[in-house]
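lol ok so funny story. i was supposed to be doing the assay writeup but got distracted and ended up predicting the structure for this chain instead. priorities right. anyway since i did it might as well share w the group, maybe its usefull for someone
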Amino acid sequence: MQITVLGYWGAYPAAGEATSGYLLQGKSKIILIDCGSAVLSQLQRYIELSDLDAVIITHYHADHIADIHCLQYAVMIDTLRGKRQNILPIYAHNEDKQFEGLTYREYTEGVAIRSESNLLIDDFDFSFIKTVHPDPCLAVKITQLKKTITYTADTEYFDGLVDFARYSDILLSEASLYREYENKVPGHLSAAQAGKLAAEAQAGELILTHLPRYGDHKQLIKESREYFKNRIQLAESGLIIK
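and the output, tada:
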C-alpha cells in the first residue's frame, strides 16, 4: 500500500501546489482520495488519468472536490479516444445534493457510502465514520494486509474518532489550526489536538495535512509533539507514504 500526497493545503493552494488529494496505489488498483483545487494537475505527474480505478470524496467543500468536474471531462475524453473502457466510480456520501453531480452521463457514476459502512476495492478495505464538521464529512480508514492508514478528513476532536483510528500504522490528520485558534474554528483540529488524537489512538506515525496558509508550519510539529512522541512529519507535495 502506497499513498502519494498530491495536495495538502487547506482552503486554497499555494502557487504550483494543491489542496486535499491523495493517490492510493496497490498491486492492481489506483484510487484517488479527495480531488481538491489543482489535484488533477498534480495527479498527472504520477499516473495516466485513464489508469484511475476509483475516487473517494470525503465531503463537498471546494478544497476537497474542486477538480472533480474537470476529472469527469478527462474521463469522457479518454473514453471517446479509446483509452478508457470502464466507467469511473466516485464514492461519496449522499447527504448533499451535490452527490447527483458525481454521475456524468455514461462516464462517471456516483456511488453512495455512509458512516460505519465498509467498501472493498480489490484488497483494500475501506471503512468510514462521520466527523464533526459544519457539513457532513467522512473520515476514512484503509486496511490492507493488516496494515492501516486513517485519514481524518475535516473534523473537530471527538472520542469516536479515537476509537476509529485505534492502532493505525499511520494517522494522516488534518492540522488546520495553531494552538491559539484551537476550538475557535468549527469543524477543524489544531496540531495539538492531532497529536492528542494520535497518542490516544496509539498510532504508529502522525502526518499533519490540510495545513494553514499562515504561520510557521514547524510550530505545528512542536505543538503536536506535546502529546505524541512517535514520528511526526508534515505533508508535502510528492510525499510517499508506504
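Residues 68-80 form the longest helix (13 residues). The chain has one domain: 2-235.
back to the writeup now i swear
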